[in-house]
Amino acid sequence: MGPGGPPGGGPGGRGPGGPGGRAPDLGKVGDDAEHTVEWLAAFVRDPKSQKADARMPAFGAEKINDADLQALAEYLASLKSDPEKAAGEAPTGDEPPGDAKPGN
């Protein structure tokens, strides 16, 4: 077993968390415009309230407190395929292209 778990496991890989595994790949869950922080928090708290056919168990207040649920939902919402979307920043146009540095 290597760092971070068994080879091929985790988001996008073979095994749990990836295609053919028991859980969905959450690596880009924030790409879906419907998946706001509020939606994700509600889904984790009571999945069937957001998706009638959800198989995920509910995580009531006895399993995750409100502060941790909020932090989790914010983290999940930040998982996007585009790093600029994940950072919540749009390019301003002031950045130098590529690897160019100011003054070069």
Structural description of this entry:
By secondary structure, this protein is mainly α. The protein has a domain at 29-82. 26% of the residues lie in helices and 0% in strands. The protein has helices at 37-45, 66-78, 83-87. Helix 1 (37-45) crosses helix 2 (66-78). The longest helix has 13 residues, at 66-78. The protein is globular. Mean pLDDT is 76; it is low at 1-15 and 95-101.
Number of H- or I-type helical stretches? 3
Q: End-to-end span in angstroms?
A: 45 Å
Number of strands: 0
Biggest beta-sheet profile: none
Poorly predicted spans: 1-15, 95-101
Keywords:
0% strand; globular; mainly alpha; disordered N terminus
How are the elements arranged and paired?
Elements: H1 37-45, H2 66-78, H3 83-87
Helix pairs in contact: 1-2
In short:
This protein is an all-alpha fold. Helix content is 26%, strand content 0%. Mean pLDDT is 76; it is low at 1-15 and 95-101.
